[in-house]
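Appendix B. Raw example, untouched.
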Amino acid sequence: MDTQPIVTSQPPITPAPIAPVGANHDSPVLQSSSSHLLPILLSSLITIIILASVYFLFLNKKSETISNTPAPSPTGTAITVPSADPTSSWQTYSNANPLTFKYPAEYTLKETSESINVQKNPTRALLYISLLNNPKNLSAENWFDGQSIDIRQPILNTHNRSTVMIGNQAAVKFTKQDGSQDFLVVFVDGTKGYFAYFGPTSTDESITANQILSTFKFTTQTNSTDPIEIIKMMTKPMTWSAPSNTNAYDSNNRAYPIILITSHVDKKEDDRLAPLLVSNSLLTTTYGWTPVPEESADGPGMSMVVFTTTNNGLAQKILIRQSGGDYAVQISNQ
């Protein structure tokens, strides 16, 4: 018998219809849930905020850079107008003393061999200068410290001490501790010492006092080689007689020409001349004079010091003699 294959009957497989593009029907694609979208939105928002912050920071930095850039200078030359000198119309003190300064025209100046007064009020001086000696040629600091304790201590007890400049020299300034406007300036010039007291009683006078101080300077010329000029400079404000040409005589009674200046002095002026009778004074250390000890002498009522020097290439001998109240300076060519 013939065996027939068993054929199982199955329904035909019908392919799923393919929706045309753009067909309006439900898509089989799954939709994202809201829990998935939230982190994405937050991340985007944070990124936007960061980018915006960086952008605004950049704008601010650029604006600050522009504002700090200096504006270009205008072309052309700037004209500087000098300030007026308030002392230009003042009077100038310049006498036998090496110190010179200016003072207002409405003030009067009175001078003696020991002091200089500048005053507007006849009973009170705005400036009082005491003229003293500095025979050892000390600095202003050392000269003041060498004053007697009766002079120094009252000043140190009531004043503050500082250093100022008078011309090109250091000076000592004392200002009142109680705030008063008056002040004291101590300074020197070679063998001269000065106590300059300023006594303003108002703000205007205080300004005037400091303006006067700013004009202080010295006319000392240490480069002079003329013995007469050197001796006059060292003994200012003394007054010497005009130099005269005369003759002196040697031991053989032979005449030789000399230049002679003389001065009659009182005791206080005598103190000003004392440095000239010291062989190691400024005459040797500053001006290079050479002492002649064998011709110098010192006895009762009389002192004499002899030097040699060169003036304009000419060798000269200088004899300084003190006898009683008289001084004589004799200069002769060797």
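End of appendix B.
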